[in-house]
Design brief:
Layout (H helix, E strand, L loop, with lengths): L1 H9 L8 H27 L9 H22 L8 H13 L2 H13 L3 H26 L8
Helix pairs in contact: 2-3, 2-4, 3-4, 3-6, 5-6
Length: 149
């Protein structure tokens, strides 16, 4: 916990006045609300059917991985966005949008329901497509020669 506080203090999020810490928390909260609403919307639009591929969760996770890859690449190349953009998009929006715990539950339910090939392929394709999305979005967000790889 001290490490988190010391990093936050170095970035100007000291709790001495409470204002920067409050603004940071509000940014994470706002991003979390947006991410949760987006995931809810996906689940409403693409409800999970027993034995079927859980498209809503896959889309949410791949989109979240892509966004996090792009945000991370821009930060790694030294871009200084607003103080709250990283927490808003990273911890907030992506944290609420992505749900790898649900992937595990859905894969287990598919396998236990006799859909072994679907469950296993869903699990692996989610992880692989998430990694690819993060990598590709990172490459697109940080053009060559900027230091991010």
């Amino acid at each position: 916990m001290a490490l988190v506080h010391s990093r936050a203090a170095r970035r100007g999020y000291s709790s001495a006045s409470g204002r920067p810490a409050l603004a940071l928390n509000l940014a994470v909260f706002a991003g979390g609300c947006l991410g949760a609403l987006a995931r809810f919307g996906l689940l409403e639009a693409l409800p999970v059917r027993p034995g079927a591929w859980p498209w809503a969760t896959l889309i949410a996770n791949v989109a979240g991985c892509a966004l996090l890859g792009a945000v991370s690449a821009r930060l790694l190349r030294g871009e200084r966005p607003s103080r709250h953009r990283g927490p808003l998009l990273g911890a907030g929006l992506c944290g609420a949008l992505t749900t790898f715990a649900t992937v595990q539950v859905e894969a287990v339910l598919l396998i236990e329901g006799g859909h072994v090939a679907t469950g296993v392929s869903y699990l692996f394709s989610t992880v692989i497509s998430g990694l690819l999305a993060a990598h590709l979005a990172g490459r697109l967000a940080a053009p060559r020669g900027t230091g991010a790889r």
